[in-house]
TrEMBL record:
<dbReference type="InterPro" id="IPR033989">
    <property type="entry name" value="CD209-like_CTLD"/>
</dbReference>
<dbReference type="InterPro" id="IPR018378">
    <property type="entry name" value="C-type_lectin_CS"/>
</dbReference>
<dbReference type="InterPro" id="IPR050111">
    <property type="entry name" value="C-type_lectin/snaclec_domain"/>
</dbReference>
<protein>
    <recommendedName>
        <fullName>C-type lectin domain-containing protein</fullName>
    </recommendedName>
</protein>
<dbReference type="InterPro" id="IPR016187">
    <property type="entry name" value="CTDL_fold"/>
</dbReference>
<feature type="domain" description="C-type lectin">
    <location>
        <begin position="33"/>
        <end position="141"/>
    </location>
</feature>
<dbReference type="InterPro" id="IPR001304">
    <property type="entry name" value="C-type_lectin-like"/>
</dbReference>
<dbReference type="GO" id="GO:0030246">
    <property type="term" value="F:carbohydrate binding"/>
</dbReference>
<dbReference type="Pfam" id="PF00059">
    <property type="entry name" value="Lectin_C"/>
</dbReference>
<keyword id="KW-0430">Lectin</keyword>
<dbReference type="InterPro" id="IPR016186">
    <property type="entry name" value="C-type_lectin-like/link_sf"/>
</dbReference>
<keyword id="KW-1015">Disulfide bond</keyword>
Length: 146
């Protein structure tokens, strides 16, 4: 049986459906809250490997903009680092840190700690600076697109 060649319009339609299917699959593993999708990993990676995974999903490591986004979970990478300039904390989108939730005595840069984890030992102040080479779970955030 001879295969019928589809018109460019139909082929474009299939591509759009395929993209839509892939988006739906990605969203199945995510939670939606206040205009963003969130994905929490089930595996552990370094800070950079975690960020790369988020970027592959069309997202980035979590940037905490509100108290509601301050997740009450343990040992997760967030998108905050001072790897460019020691002591100058910036989010992965380049914005400087303004509101913080550092744990007592943090950040302390013990052993060149340039990345940040949420470490739940205090419901309000649970950020801890750690070595970027530690293996931790992570949380990605993707803003909802209009």
């Amino acid at each position: 049986m001879k295969k019928r060649k589809e018109t460019p319009y139909v082929e474009a339609g299939f591509k759009t459906l395929t993209e839509e299917r892939d988006d739906l699959k990605r969203n199945l593993d995510q939670e939606y809250f206040n205009g963003s999708f969130y994905y929490i990993s089930s595996t552990k990676k370094t800070w950079q490997e975690s960020r790369d995974d988020c970027l592959q999903k069309g997202a980035d490591l979590l940037i905490i903009n509100s108290k509601e986004e301050h997740v009450r979970v343990c040992r997760l990478w967030i998108g905050l680092t001072d790897s460019e300039t020691e002591g100058t904390w910036k989010w992965v989108d380049g914005t400087p840190l303004t509101k913080s939730y550092w744990g007592s005595g943090e950040p302390n840069d013990e052993n060149s700690e340039n990345c940040v984890e949420i470490r739940y030992y205090d419901s309000k102040n649970s950020w801890n600076d750690v070595s970027c080479s530690f293996l931790l779970n992570w949380i990605c955030e993707r803003k909802d697109r209009p």
